[in-house]
Amino acid sequence: MNKLTPEEERVILHKGTEAPFRNEYDHLFADGTFICRRCNAPLFSAETKFDSGCGWPSFDANYPDAVKRLPDPDGMRTEIECANCGGHLGHVFIGERFTKNNTRHCVNSVSIRFIPKGQDIPATIHPDK
């Protein structure tokens, strides 16, 4: 696994949330891939990113089998994790009608890293290795 800063650990390992509207990727709209900061697994194509106005990066689709959905302990939301390493990404919301997919993956910037198109994506680190 990649070494994490204390803030990344707070969010990714302990299911925290970063402050809205002041994070790295909320306003980034460039061609590329968003990967898990902990294990490098590809999670979202930049083509699926949209401005939801919520203060965190929003995506209306993930790569197949890249994200796991779990009931949040509060019983109100659905948590999303990296399917490879179990790192906390944020939450998913269905039915808001922001996009044709009717889905908003609301993701903490500290949980992901952006790899611009044309740049090599680092190899995925598997937890059991």
UniProtKB/TrEMBL annotation:
<dbReference type="Pfam" id="PF01641">
    <property type="entry name" value="SelR"/>
</dbReference>
<keyword id="KW-0479">Metal-binding</keyword>
<dbReference type="GO" id="GO:0046872">
    <property type="term" value="F:metal ion binding"/>
</dbReference>
<protein>
    <recommendedName>
        <fullName>peptide-methionine (R)-S-oxide reductase</fullName>
        <ecNumber>1.8.4.12</ecNumber>
    </recommendedName>
</protein>
<dbReference type="GO" id="GO:0006979">
    <property type="term" value="P:response to oxidative stress"/>
</dbReference>
<dbReference type="InterPro" id="IPR011057">
    <property type="entry name" value="Mss4-like_sf"/>
</dbReference>
<dbReference type="InterPro" id="IPR028427">
    <property type="entry name" value="Met_Sox_Rdtase_MsrB"/>
</dbReference>
<feature type="domain" description="MsrB">
    <location>
        <begin position="1"/>
        <end position="117"/>
    </location>
</feature>
<dbReference type="GO" id="GO:0033743">
    <property type="term" value="F:peptide-methionine (R)-S-oxide reductase activity"/>
</dbReference>
<dbReference type="InterPro" id="IPR002579">
    <property type="entry name" value="Met_Sox_Rdtase_MsrB_dom"/>
</dbReference>
<keyword id="KW-0560">Oxidoreductase</keyword>
<dbReference type="GO" id="GO:0030091">
    <property type="term" value="P:protein repair"/>
</dbReference>
<keyword id="KW-0862">Zinc</keyword>
